[in-house]
Write a structure and sequence with these properties.
Layout lengths: L11 E6 L7 E7 H13 L13 E7 L2 E9 L4 E5 L10 E3 L5 H12 L4
Antiparallel strand pairs: 1-2, 1-3, 3-4, 4-5, 5-6
Length: 118
């Protein structure tokens, strides 16, 4: 799956559960090796054609030493991931397709779900 080149500068990743009328619930902060591992996993998710719903349930926000880098909203129903943020080129600020049924995407979803409050 596509990540901006500056993803290498990420030192911290926030995991946000979306839903309801709010801006989402911060459920985890992944730092150092854990952040890098998650971004490497995201980068390894295979491409897939996007379906139509795009109702994201999860977001990550990657931060570097100087502040926010990029954000990815994931919809595991339509295989869409929307990329945005200050280091993302204008032509890449769009919804990218990913294979939500792949082993990598399912591992990512499992990591997200493991952070949800009980």
């Amino acid at each position: 799956m596509f990540l901006p080149a500056e993803s290498e500068r990420a030192e911290l990743v926030e995991v946000i559960r979306l839903g309801g009328s709010d801006d989402g619930l911060l459920v985890a902060i992944w730092e150092a090796d854990r952040a890098r591992s998650a971004l490497d996993l995201i980068a390894s998710v295979p491409h897939e054609e996007i379906k139509r719903c795009f109702v994201p349930g999860w977001t990550i926000r990657a931060h570097g030493a100087a502040g926010p880098l990029f954000e990815i909203e994931f919809c595991f129903r339509c295989d869409g991931a929307k990329l945005s943020g200050p280091v993302v080129a204008e032509d890449q600020r769009t919804i990218h397709g990913f294979d939500a049924r792949s082993a990598q995407a399912q591992e990512l979803l499992s990591r997200f779900r493991s952070e949800e409050p009980a």
